[in-house]
Design goal:
There is one protein chain. This protein has about 180 residues and is of the alpha+beta class. It is built from 6 helices and 7 strands; from the N terminus they run H-E-H-H-E-E-H-E-H-E-H-E-E. A 7-stranded mixed sheet has the order 1-2-3-4-5-7-6. A hairpin with a 5-residue loop joins strand 2 and strand 3. The longest helix is centred in the C-terminal third of the chain and has 15 residues. The chain is globular, with a radius of gyration of 15 Å.
């Protein structure tokens, strides 16, 4: 399950895991634009709306040496159980009491990749949302990322009902309860 092969002590020494601050929105937009191609990246407008609507569902990893965000995981809560593209663009779909979280982006800057940070973000997020009483984490990913998410405990639910960015996506889920 989540956390296997991740030395969380090393990660929590090197990174501060916390909610995003509204003043970090521009930093999040730049990270998103670095991590995703233009057809897949969240727009500046949508990212800022998402941060304003659901800052508690943004988990950032701040490099303790630089004070800058190294990566983040974000989503919105809902009672829906199937992913749809509108979650990417309509922050009003966020239901603070929703039992599920639609994960909208796992972003890790290139210089921090292959060090366990993505898995650490998912692990921290999973624990936090479990304490909040959530039931499920749901995301979409490209075929090339399916194995990575399976290693984190996600189940491949098959081809998603998503055409975001003109791509074919897999829907993945991870039960919290």
């Amino acid at each position: 399950m989540i956390g296997n092969n991740v030395n969380e002590n090393n990660l929590t020494e090197r990174f501060e895991f916390r909610d995003i601050k509204e003043c970090e929105a521009d930093q999040a937009v730049l990270i998103e634009q670095t991590c995703f191609p233009p057809n897949e990246a969240c727009s500046k407008k949508s990212m800022k709306e998402r941060i304003a609507a659901a800052p508690g569902l943004f988990l950032v990893a701040v490099d303790t040496n630089t004070g800058k965000i190294a990566g983040f995981l974000n989503g919105i809560a809902t009672d829906e159980s199937s992913f749809r593209d509108e979650f990417f663009t309509d922050a009003a779909l966020h239901n603070p009491d929703g039992r599920n979280v639609m994960l909208l982006g796992l972003d890790v800057l290139p210089q921090y990749r292959n060090q366990g940070l993505a898995k650490g973000l998912v692990s921290q997020y999973f624990k936090r949302e479990g304490k909040r009483g959530r039931s499920m984490l749901i995301l979409t990913c490209l075929e090339s990322k399916v194995m990575m998410y399976k290693k984190m405990g996600f189940k491949d639910e098959g081809i998603a009902n998503s055409t975001w960015g003109g791509e074919e996506w897999h829907e993945m889920s991870l039960s919290i309860d």
